[in-house]
Input
Amino acid sequence: MRSPFLPLAIFGCAIVRVCADAGEPLAANAESPAVQAVAERTVRETLARFAPEKLLPRQIALTVVDLRDPARPQRGGVRGDVPIYPASVVKLFYLAAAHRWMEDGRLADTAELRRALHDMIVDSSNDATSYIVDVLTGTTSGPELPDDELAAWFEKRNAVNSYFATLGFTGINVNKKPWGDGPYGRETQATRRFEQKRNMLTTDATARLLTEIATGSCINAKRSAEMMALLSRDPATKDPDPDNQAKFTGPVLPAGAKLWSKAGWTSQTRHDAAYIELPTGAKFVLVVFTTDHANQREIIRSVAKVVVKEMQAKL
Output
C-alpha cells in the first residue's frame, strides 16, 4: 500500500513528515536569525519586567513562527525543545489525532464525536477529552488491572504517541487524560508503573502542529479548516471569566487582529498556543509556556505584546 506520507522535511533538529493528501508539502520551518533575535529579545524583556515577581529563565519557554510567507515558515525560540507539562494544550494533539483517525476511517465521524471535540477545544472540557482519549486508543479508565492486562492496556493507550512519533515529533508524551482531582484505578497504576508519568510537550512541537493546522497542511485543507474553526477566539471578548482562553493573549492584540488558540493552565502552569493575524498582514504562531507563576496572567500578555510589536515591523 502506498505510504500516506511524502518525503521527509526538516523542522529544526526534528524530522517532519507532511501528509500527502494535504497538497503541496509545507516548506521546512527553518531557523531564522531574525525571528530567533525576536524570541531572545522578548524573553530578555519579559524576565526584566517580571524580575520583582522572581520570574526565572527556567520558568519560561517560547517558540515563534513567522508565517508571512506560509510556504516558508521561519522559526525562532528560547528553550523551545524543553519538555514541559502542557496542561490543556495537549488537547490540540488529541484534536489532530481524531481528525487523522476519521480521515483514515478508523473512527466514525458522529455527532457525539463532534460534540466532544467542540467541548474539548472551545470549552477545554476534561470530560470531553477523556472521551476522546478513549475512542482514539480503545481504552477506558476503570478498576485496577492484573499486570499483564495493564501492559496490554498501556500499549493501546500509547496510540497517539505512536502516531506523532511516525511524524517525527520529539520531546512529547501525549497518552494521559487531563484530570480535576487526579487519576484513579488503572490510570494510577499505569502512572506508577510506566514512564513517562505525565503528558509533556515542547513549545517547538506545539508550534509545529499549530503551524501545520494554520497553513492547511495538517492532514488536508478541509480538516485543518475544521480544526481552525474550533480554535477561533474573539480577542475583544467581554466574558468576565479572567481565564477565558481568548484572554491569555487577546487583550494585547491591536484592533482588527484575529486569534486562534488553545490555552492551558493548572495551579503550577499557564500556557498559550496561538496563531495570530495582524491588520498589517503579519501572520505568526506564538507558543508560550510558563511554570510556577500560574496566577500571573500578565506574563503571557507581556510576551505577546513584545512579539506583536516586533512582527508589525519588517523583520
Observations:
- The chain is about 40% helix and 15% strand.
